[in-house]
Amino acid sequence: YAQMSGSGEDAKAAFRASRGMQQQSQHSPAQQQPNYQNWAPTTPENWNTYQNRANMQRQRRENGARQVTVRDAIEEIEAKARLVHESNTSQRVMTWSQWCRRMEDSRLDADTCYVDDEAGGINVSFDEVFIRSAAVEGAVRSVVCSPISDHTEFNFLLSHCLDGDSTTVSNLSAGLKNLGACFRGCQRPVPEGFLEPLIVIIRELKTNPKMKRDSGSALRKLDEQISFQAAKNLELLKSGNAAPEARHRCTSELLRLSNEKRSLLESTQPSKASSSTTFDSEAILVLFEEMNSVISDMTSQVQASHEVNAKKHEQLTSRLKAAMMGDDEHEKVVQEQEALQAEVSRLKSKKLAILRELDALDTDIASAEQRQRSHGAQSSKVMAAYRQKMQAIQGTDDRIAENYRASAQVVSECAQSSEFLSWLSGAASHALSERAARSGTEVKAARKQVMGFLTQHLEAVLEGLELVGRRHKFCGSKLESMRGELKEALEIGLGDLAGDLRINIAKFEAMQLEILSSIPASDTDLATLTDMVATFEFGEGDEGAESLREQLARVREGVASSQQALVGV
Question: Which end of the chain has fewer CB atoms < 10 Å from its terminal CB, N or C?
């Protein structure tokens, strides 16, 4: 406060000193320089304040972002994944959480630039680097080989890396967790090659961020350009007096952009963009038959063990019941305790239901509880003797009950694992087919858009050809009239008029040549349009196909006639 109460420069210096922004100046007096000797340096251990975090971020900006190639980053992630998935499995949940936060918030990697040398040195995000690594496959192996108790973070990790809705991802993560619990409960190692079909399915369902990045930005640019050209074409149609050449250029550009969009969408379809093997439903079912046989074998063995434990548990229950039935004094104590407990519960319920009798009910409850405590004190010797007797009877029977519960849980886990594999064999096929159907719908819409723009372009070309014909006919009639006038002027001896007529005839001939040279479609354009129409898949009796072919034939005839007229001129 004493510093800020002075001049304006003192206030600025105090503000900079409080924010750590004071700079040394060789022209400043020594008494105005802040004392940095007593300040503690900023270290990673004391970065818990806002000022220290701001200082560290400023140091990172001054030092520049750390550049890492995608190949090195993938090796680093896979090395970390091998460490937590194979050796130090206690840290894998925390590591999954860190990976998920880094994929959700790009600011956590603001000081690191991931450079993709294969894509021309562009910068990519952490989620693309992570998905391109094999960390997700390692997490799947780790969950099955070393089961986890809670699959929440594993579910988050899969939701960031796989295609599909939340229900599919949740069922997948829960099924993999239960599959690992099944092997652990059966005390059997995971067979060699058992996980390979699962890894193939996970790898097939992984998002392709590189394709999404490349095609996504290109599609956005194409959509913006198509929207602009479509709005321009609409304005030209509304005005009514626009030149046909302007509309021809606009529809030609629309046709080019829409055809480029269609080609891009067709190239990004799963069957063409992915080099890995695509599976149909029958192949997936065959792939999971061996896995189901392994689970069925485990289930039969565990079921047999569970039946043995069930018999032992039933014998234990019978012995306990027989021991309890033979002790009349203990039965009386238990019955008395149950009766008193029931009376206390009844009175408590009555207290809550009838508010006007609270005082009397409190007295009754206190009396009943006192009788219960006195009875418990009096019967403590009987209960102690009974417990000692039961311990002598049970012996190792507690282990039987524990084995029974454990075997029942393992049987349930085996059944759930079998259900999970059956679900996964259909869900994976459904997810892949859904992604292919979605891509097919987008391609179909793009093809329909191309067909609409092609129709508009052919209409503009026909209008241009009609205008060229009308202009040519007008110039021809004028030339014929002026040539007749020139002949007549020469016959009657009007030389000056004949000279003017010759100049006008030359102008009209040049104009006629220019008109015929401005044909709105060349042979190359006709070949391109013909090839484009040939690529469309039309059904039998499709009216749109017939209309397109008729318009194309009319354009071809108009261009041919204009070219013949040009040769004649």
Answer: N
